[in-house]
Amino acid sequence: MTDRPRNPVRKSFSSPLASAFVIAMTVLWTIPTFGLLVTSLRPKKDVTTDGWWNALIHPDFGLGNYHEVLFEGGSGSSTGMMPFLVNSLAISIPATLFPLVLAAMAAYALAWVRFRGSDAVFFTVFALQVVPLQMALIPLLRLFSGGAHLGPLTLIPALGVKGSYAPVWLAHTMFAMPLAVFLLHNFIAQLPRDLMEAAVVDGASHFKIFRSIVLPLCAPALASFAIFQFLWVWNDLLVALVFAGGTPEVAPMTVRLAQQAGSLGGRWELLTAGAFLSVIVPLIVFFSLQRYFVRGLLAGSVKG
Amino acid sequence: MSVSGSPPAADSLAVGAWGDAAVKFGNSVGAIAGFLGILLVVFLVAGRARGRLARPLAVLVFLGPAVLLLVVGLVAPLIRTVYLSLHNADGSRFVGGENFGWAFTTDSVQKVLVNTLLWLLVAPLAATGLGLVLALLVDRMRGQSVYKSLIFMPMAISLVGASIIFKFVYEARGKDQPQIGLLSQLAHAVGWSDPPNWLLSQPLNTFLLMVVMVWVQTGFAMVVLSAAIKAIPDEVVEAARLDGATGVRLFWYVTVPMIRTTVMVVLTTVMIITLKAFDIVRTMTGGNFGTQVLANEMYSQSFGQSNDGRGGALAVLLFLAVLPLVAYNIVQLRREREVR
Questions:
Q1: What phi, psi does B87 have (nearest 5°)?
Q2: Mutate which of B140, B259, B279 to disrupt the A interface (most A C-beta within 10 Å)?
Q3: B163, B302: one domain
Q4: Alpha carbon separation from B79 to A32, A97, A176, B76 (Å, rounded)
Q5: Which of B47, B151, B182 sits opposite A205 (nearest CB)?
Q6: pLDDT digits 0-9 by tens, B171-191
Q7: Residues B72, B113 share a domain
Q8: Burial of A89 per CB tally in 10 Å (0-12, 13-18, 19+)
Q9: Considering the entire predicted model, what is its pTM?
Q10: Where's the ABC transmembrane type-1 domain (chain A) (predicted)?
């Protein structure tokens, strides 16, 4: 997002009115999050008696809500947010790494190890991108809990992984695969042909080429997909609800927050603190790695 | 475990929390180490193969895991869901189109279908339209990256988080009480003394929920479209200007055609994300007060009422709703590949 030399298309839309509109939109877009942050820092009695905007005039801020929501959890619940926060991290990191590595391998095979039907495989993978997750939930849940059977024949045994992270990792890895293969393929296919051929002439195996040429050269693409996938998993509710249940043992923060949005009803000081806790990690990732994030976005949607 | 809130209890609880965290991270790190270890061994072993076996082995090792995951995780479940949708609640009896009949003839489900269609049309069009306007306006402003970042920021926030943010904005209280929700306060500020309880009033509430989706997606549309506009070659624009095109004409006859593909890609992407309206509806209203959507109803049927047949039928309907998008995207990709 750098300022490039000006282009006449843009100049023709130039006017103070336009600038005012953009500024107004920016303020409008930022205020809700800002209100959340301000509220989460205010004492309980203030939150319920007047609007957060008044706190800007008479500030009285503290971290008490965060302590309460992390370790005590508010009324009607036995644990705080802490175990769920840990779950979020423990789910997100492997669920980012697994699809990243496996998709990079698949993308390399589809781009550089030519074989019969590789185009068909590529198109199928691409098409699977648009299958709604909802289509896969029930059968996959049954597979995890009961295995797969064809009549009396057991194709896949019950995995016995209920109550652990494994089903969530696995589900995220599966669901990420189409987009990951597609995006990384776009990038890996554009590596210079001469370089690859030279490596083959030198007698390098595909495994060596992948490790010592493809992975290092694709680092930016891998980084941008990793950010995507991390945010996607961290922010996910549906997959977590189905495959992790709602317990402090496995469920991530999103599940807990969605529960609290119903159960904590009026306790805005706790709800806002909880919500801000869940938002802070993605925001840090977003603001510190924005460049890669945007690059990944553009690789996926603007060809050129 | 009871929590007294007294300092010692809270402290011991905190210690327990750290121990718990250590175990969980241990699991996570162990899984990663195991995964990378297996890969390393496979690579070392398979990398030694030479001759005629080398290529098939490479295809198998590189592509095998991804294909297996896709077949087990998406393709087989897809077929299975279609199968389930044609059977009764526990899958024991074939019922043909009964579940689909139920979906189209039950009043409450009809309402859900209408809501889902509204979501799929209104939210993506609004987000893409607003994103396009912003992309056109923001690019010539000084400090554009600041504006872009702030408008783009909600994209990083989970839909659950965004829902809580907006639930707070929409918080409504009796007219004699002090308002703590921004929207109610604004209504009062402009002299609307008795505004409705936002999330309870149909059909307004469905659109208020869509605002959350638009808030999240507009920045994405803006960033992608702005890049597409920057990529329009200067010569094209210059030529059009020499022919006398300016302002709005330049926009409609040069900018729009040049970025048409990107607009479609953005629209498609936002529509696919809109299928996740599930998160918003579930967090903000739980699907009550006439705001239910297909994805959430499907979840309640399958996991709340254990009716896999109906849940499956709703999932199939959801798929049929996006099928045109699938077709469009595949045609588009084919065309691009031919050009290449």
A1: -120, 170
A2: B140
A3: yes
A4: 42, 28, 19, 5
A5: B47
A6: 888 877 888 889 988 888 888
A7: no
A8: middle
A9: 0.88
A10: 85-289
